[in-house]
Inverse folding.
């Protein structure tokens, strides 16, 4: 019996039937079909969050000059206050509200009589105290139930103050995980922000860095590298971004996509409306970064850019070579299990691979089937009631702003090579005999860790200490345990340093008290020492 | 840092900025973690449970295990009954707790799920328990949620057999496991046998053993909660967190209760010891005398660094009031005391303290937020800030020494293992305060004024 069967075996029949579909014993001769983006069974200790977390926490939260009012009781605003490490610097003349937490702090009478009045009043107070240029309204569970019309309030605010005000109906109960919230956030940004900017872009190597939230400064490190190669980063979605960056995204000649799950809607819609194609890249891992840079250069197809790209790669490699060799010697042969979000479980396998660490299990918290199996499965994904409830928008080409960089022929060639508008998913990069588990819950985490005994478990704060209490090093891949950046070349060294110190920290050797393995009684039996 | 905060006062009635409270369910979850073999269960969207577990884990740096009803849009329309039923079956099946402690959320409260009825309709296995409390997030704060969950356990489980078991029921309030250990140590030193509810020591400060335990050794057992009804006396710490459950135990089982402030500082720990003594009618042992004397000794030693220093204190009402009295004992001036938790008692109690120590010009506010506290500090500065992690932004913006005390502390380690309560806790808090002030003096002094001996 393999590890997967052993874990499943302990479930009752109904749970067994459900959870079996969410696990794959990877065999690249077969289809590796997995069930994903469906409801978690009630009572299961899942690590998943909600729609609000995906919208406000992930996509909208990082926009530094958007004054985001969480409309609901206090908790939801409070938990998203400074707890995700999407860093943002404030340049001169820019607003940055990330140190603040704004909420309507709804009380019982508001729930009974409606919260619109309080929301309006909160906007009046926000304007008088902070005078922001953009206000976002994110609603939480009860707001959807009592029927507050937050879109009407947003419209009122725009007329009253001449600001931009966007409403996000991202109540926690929508969808099955954070994923629904990503979608809702994507929809509103495409509808109300992207395409409105008229910043002058002179560099033809202009790109959007989509699905990069600048956790621990990842986005800054990636931007540094891209600028070195000669690119102009028009916008980053949404780490450290301003509203103006986002409004100008339509002008870029290529969108590169780091986190496919949270931003793929925008990537596609920008292409449909403005002609900018998208490319799945990955700046986590040395080899992955090199490949991504080369693919980008291939798209822009410019000898100077290509040469500069190679020069930068050589130089960056040269800078980290010694450090990487040192950490490889410390980490080679170790094994890892990874359970994170909707893209990192894939990305970090590359970086671990660079270090000689083998991934034995990987899973996503809120991915869809395409993040596991590749976009080729999209036509075969069944839509259920939960996903139907989230609006799927379509757009027409914008007659004025639509622009192309490559000829249709060249673009089609890249599409055939699967460099453009394609993501192959995680499973193709996983070795046979490893495991892929969707919505890995607490019980399965505990059991798989016992059976597979990885040296490191990469996950989040909720299960970090579960692993560590059982003697396995755990590093958070949502927050990087307050370290980073982990992206690109230099980031790889930071990552290697952090996991090396985790594995080699002396305290692990003291877990067992000496008296646990020393007998209390010393004595002799027939003149021979007994113990 | 916090550049939009200006000192000009502005009356807000709708926009909450930088709150000093969070919602009820997280308090309920924390209380339920203090019951042995208990699975706290969040009846609402998955996100609530995820946020609360995340938050508690960040504070304690230990696993906070809890399950959820995983509401979808359908459940939100048709009610969460079937989700709860499925959840209960799966929890007992897979995680095998002795008891499930359900708390509601703003979602399940708004749709009006009747938890009494729902739980009655659930087939709870023999020898297992399922209890609940209502924790609407749009009322009160995490402190009310904690209080409601403790009351929930009592409502469902505690019975009076008619025989007094001679024990004291200790309701410790919303404090760290380190505090609970210290309260128990003092009760033991006084020769009192007790049951503490909840007791998160041994759960949220569990040791490293190389083996993860879903239900660690600590926590009040179901049997202990059942026999709480036979207690001779309840000592309830903190009006906000413990008065309601103590009153319930009196009403339901006839156990008399004495409401005490959280025992932080000399006077308030004295009250605890006196309450224990009036129960035992025995001499206070020398060991307690000695600890008390040590605390008073250090307070006299450090007074040159604390006397007349102005301090701002924020956090949960019971904690803030007790720290306020302690800083008054140290000769400091609690210039501003603020809690995010609503309620009229807080301001009155704070003002009584100002009067008791003959201090004027101090402000106290309940249902306030950190934006307002920061405005006050900008208007007239303080020498020290005491509170949870969220205060670090104000401390940096105004360059004020900062002592982390209370909940939540999500940017430092070890704090939850160590007490603020009792004479020992007082000594720890006095050390934290003095070090912060003296480190600042060292940092700011001119080179020629830099002292070797202080």
């Amino acid at each position: 019996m393999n590890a997967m069967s052993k874990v499943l075996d302990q479930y009752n029949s109904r749970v067994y039937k459900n959870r079996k579909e969410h696990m794959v014993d990877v065999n690249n001769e077969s289809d590796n079909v997995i069930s994903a983006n469906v409801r978690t069974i009630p009572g299961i200790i899942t690590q998943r969050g909600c729609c609000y977390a995906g919208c406000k926490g992930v996509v909208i939260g990082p926009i530094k000059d958007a004054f985001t009012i969480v409309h609901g009781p206090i908790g939801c605003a409070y938990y998203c206050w400074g707890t995700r490490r999407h860093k943002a610097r404030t340049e001169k003349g820019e607003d940055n509200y990330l140190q603040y937490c704004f909420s309507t702090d709804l009380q019982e009478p508001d729930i009974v009589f409606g919260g619109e009045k309080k929301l309006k009043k909160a906007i009046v107070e926000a304007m008088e105290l902070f005078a922001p240029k953009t206000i976002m309204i994110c609603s939480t569970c009860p707001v959807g139930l009592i029927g507050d019309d937050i879109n009407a309030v947003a419209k009122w605010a725009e007329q009253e103050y001449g600001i931009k005000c966007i409403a996000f109906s991202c109540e926690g109960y929508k969808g099955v995980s954070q994923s629904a919230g990503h979608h809702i956030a994507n929809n509103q940004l495409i509808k109300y922000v992207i395409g409105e900017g008229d910043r002058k872009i002179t560099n033809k190597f202009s790109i959007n860095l989509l699905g990069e939230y600048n956790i621990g400064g990842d986005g800054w490190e990636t931007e540094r590298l891209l600028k070195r190669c000669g690119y102009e980063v028009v916008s980053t979605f949404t780490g450290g971004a301003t509203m103006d960056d986002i409004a100008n995204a339509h002008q870029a000649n290529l969108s590169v996509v780091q986190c496919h799950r949270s931003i793929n809607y925008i990537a596609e819609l920008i292409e449909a409306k403005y002609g900018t194609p998208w490319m799945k890249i990955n700046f986590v891992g040395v080899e992955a970064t090199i490949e991504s840079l080369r693919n980008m250069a291939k798209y822009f197809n410019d000898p100077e850019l290509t040469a500069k790209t190679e020069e930068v790669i050589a130089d960056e490699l040269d800078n980290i070579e010694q450090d990487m060799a040192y950490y490889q010697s410390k980490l080679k042969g170790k094994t890892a299990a990874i359970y994170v979000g909707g893209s990192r479980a894939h990305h970090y396998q590359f970086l671990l691979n660079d270090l000689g660490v083998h991934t034995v299990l990987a899973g996503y918290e809120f991915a869809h089937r395409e993040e596991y199996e590749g976009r080729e499965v999209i036509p075969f994904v069944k839509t259920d009631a939960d996903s139907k409830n989230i609006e799927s928008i379509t757009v027409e080409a914008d007659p004025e702003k639509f622009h192309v960089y490559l000829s249709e022929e060249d673009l089609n060639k890249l599409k055939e090579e699967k460099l453009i508008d394609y993501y192959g998913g995680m499973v193709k990069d996983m070795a046979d005999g490893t495991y892929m588990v969707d919505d890995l819950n607490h019980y399965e985490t505990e059991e798989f860790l016992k059976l597979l005994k990885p040296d490191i478990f990469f996950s989040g704060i909720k299960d970090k200490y579960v692993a560590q209490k059982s003697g396995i090093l755990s590093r958070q891949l949502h927050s990087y345990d307050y370290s980073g950046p982990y992206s690109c070349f230099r980031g790889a060294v930071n990552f290697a340093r952090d996991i090396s110190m985790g594995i080699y920290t002396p305290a692990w050797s003291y877990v067992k008290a000496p008296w646990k393995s020393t007998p209390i009684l010393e004595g002799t039996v027939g003149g021979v020492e007994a113990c | 840092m916090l550049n939009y905060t200006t000192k000009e006062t502005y009356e807000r009635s709708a926009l909450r900025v930088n709150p000093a409270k969070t919602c009820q369910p997280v308090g309920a979850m924390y209380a339920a973690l203090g019951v042995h073999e208990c699975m706290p269960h969040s009846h609402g969207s998955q996100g609530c449970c995820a946020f609360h577990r995340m938050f508690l884990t960040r504070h304690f740096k230990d696993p906070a295990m809890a399950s959820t009803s995983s509401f979808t849009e359908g459940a939100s329309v048709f009610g969460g009954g079937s989700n709860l039923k499925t959840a209960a079956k799966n929890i007992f099946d897979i995680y095998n707790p002795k008891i499930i402690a359900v708390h509601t959320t703003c979602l399940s409260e708004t749709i009006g799920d009747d938890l009494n009825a729902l739980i009655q309709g659930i087939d709870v296995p023999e020898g297992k328990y399922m209890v609940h409390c209502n924790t609407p997030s749009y009322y009160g704060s995490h402190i009310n949620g904690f209080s409601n969950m403790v009351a929930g356990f009592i409502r469902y489980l505690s019975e009076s057999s008619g025989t007094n078991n001679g024990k004291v029921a200790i309701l410790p309030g919303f404090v760290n496991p380190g505090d609970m250990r210290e309260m128990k140590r003092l009760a033991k030193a006084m020769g009192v046998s007790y049951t503490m509810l909840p007791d998160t020591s041994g759960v949220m400060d569990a040791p490293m053993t190389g083996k993860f335990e879903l239900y660690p050794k600590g926590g009040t057992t179901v049997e202990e909660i059942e026999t709480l009804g036979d207690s001779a006396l309840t000592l309830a710490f903190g009006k906000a967190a413990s008065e309601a459950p103590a009153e319930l135990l009196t009403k339901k089982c006839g156990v008399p209760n004495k409401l005490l402030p959280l025992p932080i500082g000399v006077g308030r720990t004295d009250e605890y010891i006196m309450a224990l003594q009036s129960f035992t009618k025995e001499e206070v042992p020398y060991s307690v005398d000695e600890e008390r004397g040590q605390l008073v000794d250090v307070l006299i030693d450090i007074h040159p660094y604390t006397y007349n220093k102005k301090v701002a204190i924020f956090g949960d009402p019971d904690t803030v009031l007790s720290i306020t009295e302690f800083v008054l004992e140290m000769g400091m001036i609690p210039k501003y005391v603020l809690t995010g938790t609503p309620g009229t008692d807080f301001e009155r109690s704070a003002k009584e303290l100002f009067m008791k120590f003959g201090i004027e010009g101090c402000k106290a506010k309940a249902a306030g937020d950190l934006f307002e506290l920061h405005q006050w500090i900008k208007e007239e500065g303080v020498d020290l800030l005491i509170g949870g992690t969220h205060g670090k932004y104000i401390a940096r913006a105004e360059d004020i020494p900062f002592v982390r005390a209370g909940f939540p502390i999500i940017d430092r380690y070890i704090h939850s293992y160590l007490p603020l309560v009792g004479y020992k806790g007082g000594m720890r808090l006095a050390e934290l305060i003095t070090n912060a002030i003296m480190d600042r003096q060292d940092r700011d002094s001119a080179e020629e004024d830099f002292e070797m001996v202080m």
Q: What stands out?
A: The mean pLDDT of chain B is 98.
